[in-house]
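Sanity check

After download, print the first record. It should look like this:
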Amino acid sequence: MSENDLKLIKFSSFLYYLIPFFLIKFIFFADFFLVLISSIFLYLTFKYKKFSYFNNIYFKVFLVFYLLITIRSIFSDNVYLSIGSSVFYFRFALFSLATIFLLEFNINFVNKLKFIFTAIFLTLFFDIIFQYYSGKNILGMSYVYFNDQNYRFTSFFYDRGVLGSYVSRFFPFLIALFFFKNKNEITNRDIILIITLFIISFILVVLSGERTSLFLLFLGFTLILLTSNGALKKISLLLIVPLILMLVILINSDVKIKNRILYQTLDQLEYKQSEKRIRAFGKIYESHFEISFKMFKQNPVFGKGVKMFRDFCSKPENFVNQSGACTTHPHHTYVQLLAETGLSGFVIIFFLFILITFILFKNFISNFFNLNKLNTLNSNYNNARMCLLAGTFITLSPFNPSGNFFNNWLSIIYFFPIGFLLYLQNSKIFYK
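Expected structure tokens:
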């Protein structure tokens, strides 16, 4: 490559490093950097005719999903509302492929990204501890969600209560970065950092007051525990009891945290005497699901179109109740997919979830019966891959409420580990 093109790769890497920071506060810039990275990748691949990046099953399946949601948006009831999210959705596939490109051409890419995420997690931890005792973060800004009904700490996220979501979703990805090694055992320094990150991640999520994020963090930790090998397996086993004790102590140390994490959850899981069942997702969520089912019945194959939940529920003929049923999305990935993309979009994403579940379960069985006696290199490969798969599993989990599947902020986080997974799948570096 020419010197100018190598500079473009360095610039693209620099933009990549900035995305985790800007996801905290300035989402527009995070998305803008993603577009620039994808554009540079397209320019270089076409210039050097490296079309092999597009010749994989991931890109082909994504292309089918993309065409499906875009065409459906064109024929939706509100094309101007729907088309914006669908037609530009293609950038996330390019971002994943650009990640592979950067991993191949920037030898320091993983180490720098690991340093950045570790620094972010540590900064968020010290800030939320400061905020817990002072009422303001280290910049002197007060958090918003602070009352008996909605007790949350938000750190630098300010009025957006997504601190726990950020930490729980990036946690498996960050742990995976420690095992992108093609030589040497995991160092003692790495072990100390991993243990520290496990502990502070749990503290951050508990203090954030985000119950779904706490569930996702435990789910991710459990998957890592069941599917990891070597040092990561030992660390996970070592931390089971301390993490549970820490959770119990944190919840019982503050009555407002206890109310938020424990009692509000139990209140939402109310028993409906008339129907002899437990309301698993709460009254508001069930109202969302009822509206989504109406949408699904009207077009079960292709749905009503991306972003059309908010349009559909606002119409008087689709009124359900006064409990906040009408919102921007139904707060469940697969319910949203059924309503907005129909069975055609639902099947693609759900099949991906089933495939990931199968791979994780297969690896768990191999570990349980000690079928894969791995050397150091393959152990590192396995741990990195399982952490990335665990992160993708919790993203696609059907067992919890979720954000808008097509939301820019969430989509960037969703697609962050994909390129690393594809790189591990295709790279021979761990077998040298």
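If your output differs, re-run the checksum step. Summary of this record's structure: Strands lie at 271-272, 277-278.
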